[in-house]
Amino acid sequence: MKKLFFISLILLAFISCQDQNKSEGANRENGKSGSGIALPDASGDPGEIVIIMNKKEYDEEIGEAIKEVFQEYADGLIRREELFTIRVVEPFEFNRIFKIARNLVYVTSFEGNTAADKWLQDIYSESSRKMIFEEPSRFMQTSNNQYAKGQNIMQLFGKDDATLAKNIRENKILIQNYFNIAERNRLAREIKMSSESRALLNEVNRELDFNIKIPAGYELAKLEEDFMWVRTLPPVGASKNLMVYFKTYEDQSEFEHANVINLRNEVGKKYVFGDPENAESFMTTEDVYVKPVQRNIDYNGKYTVETRGVWKTNNLSVGGTFISYTFVDEESNRLFYIEGFVIHPSEDHRELIREMESLITTFKAT
């Protein structure tokens, strides 16, 4: 994790290969073009990425590496869904509609000599080209708001096809995380609270001493001395649920992945009913057909176990997908288990889980 964080700092600090001047960069940060004209808002569906490259290479070595990164199946979903929805366009197809996409990726190999390759290569100055050939380990740079506000851009480059494909594969997680975090942050910024949801949050804060954004439309399902569950129950569409449980922290063994699942099942059995009229109906974790996927992450400086997987009721009446964070608040010595779970039968869950993750990341102990 520390290594990944260090690499991310290098990535963010890496200078622009397009040699943009400081005033142009400042304008873009403020949502303006280099000429000072206000930029339009970025467009496109959540999780969508426009990739600008020589389409011929998309079926060759570089394209295969791109597919391995962006079209890998997302972890822990109830059915197979790719991490991102990608649209591959040639440079000469890169019109205004594509230019204002929320996520852009330029893929440039200096081995190619077609018109499309030349277009991509011309993005780079002579000094940038020299760096690419002399330092093949440098293969990526990011920027924001090139053509639209709220836009994230990544450039992937290499002196030849083999070098670029190798770097893409070896840095798969770093590339994925850049766009995962961008999508999550967009969703977090878009969370809207109502007077009713603020009142609900105030009640939770008074009773349980923590804050977490509760979007408009959510209602209270259960509030106990150590537990909160809020949810949406629309007549049509997905049901979204957010729950927070805490207990006194005991020891490091509580972070063992199996013990996190055990804790989840204990909380589900005690507090999360599948049917309010049936006391024997409760939530549990699917671990046969779709096993939970767990990893250790750094969340706001806290050692955290992230869990993604599928939940069901013990009587199989309903089920869905979930994501959770487990960590300790040192000041209060409380172990927190925070989860977002969804119900949306026969529909995609990828973006719903991204939305629930964005809610989880707004949590603050008080």
Walkthrough of the structure:
Strand 8 and strand 9 form a beta hairpin. Helix 4 runs parallel beside helix 8. With 366 residues, the chain is of the alpha+beta class. The strands form three sheets. Strands 7, 8, 9, 10, 11, 12, 13 and 14 form an eight-stranded antiparallel sheet that branches. A five-stranded mixed sheet has the order 2-1-3-5-4, with helices on both faces. The chain has twelve helices and 15 strands. It starts with a helix and ends with a strand. It is elongated. Helices cover 34% and strands 27% of the residues. The protein has two domains: 189 residues, no CATH class; 171 residues, Protein Transport Mog1p, Chain A, CATH 3.40.1000.
Order of helices and strands: HHEHHEHEHHEEHHHEEEEHEEEEEHE
Based on CA inertia axes, which overall geometry fits?
elongated
Say how many strands there are: 15
Number of helices: 12
Report low-confidence residues grouped into runs of 5 or more: 1-29
Rg, Cα atoms, Å: 23 Å
- Overall pLDDT, averaged? 90
Sheet bearing the most strands, described? Answer: 8 strands, antiparallel
> What distance lies between the first and last C-alpha atoms, to the nearest angstrom?
27 Å
Query: How much helicity do the residues have?
Result: 25-40%
Overall SS class: alpha+beta
The overall number of domains is: 2
Give the strand content.
25-35%
